[in-house]
Write a structure and sequence with these properties.
Number of strands: 11
Structural class: mainly beta
Largest sheet: 7 strands, mixed
Order of helices and strands: EEEEEEEEEEE
Strand content: over 45%
Helix content: under 10%
Shape: globular
Distance between the termini: 37 Å
Length: about 120
């Protein structure tokens, strides 16, 4: 399995960015997916996750109401729409896939990881 994330960059506070993560190597619909982030000096943290069907998304409290996770199984892609960005959202964002139809908030439950993409929010 390979995951390729893209879409990061520099954005002003209050702005929006959409991350994409392309999945390849296995049947995408057999995997749940998640986004995690890691800021300098901090632990990696869960951001959002979604089940194989695209239903039942879950979010970290810090991003609820601002971020939206979605997926298109026909395109083997998962997205993270990030709105109303804040400087504290600055981090490297990584997508992950879990060989289960149900998502998890724990990074230890994910089998495959993308390389990460930098999102920097300026104040």
């Amino acid at each position: 399995v390979q995951l390729q994330a893209c879409g990061g960059g520099l954005v002003q506070a209050g702005g929006s960015v959409r991350l994409s993560c392309a999945f390849s190597g296995r049947t995408f619909s057999h995997y749940s997916t998640g986004w995690f982030r890691q800021a300098p000096g901090l632990e990696r943290e869960f951001v959002a996750g979604i089940s194989w069907s695209g239903n039942w998304p879950d979010y970290a409290d810090s991003v609820k109401g601002r971020f939206i996770i979605s997926r298109e199984n026909a395109k083997n892609t998962v997205y993270l729409q990030m709105n109303s960005l804040k400087p504290e959202d600055t981090a490297i964002y990584s997508c992950a896939a879990r060989s289960s139809t149900w998502m998890s908030v724990s990074s230890e439950d994910y089998n495959y990881w993308g390389q990460g993409t930098q999102v920097t929010v300026s104040s």
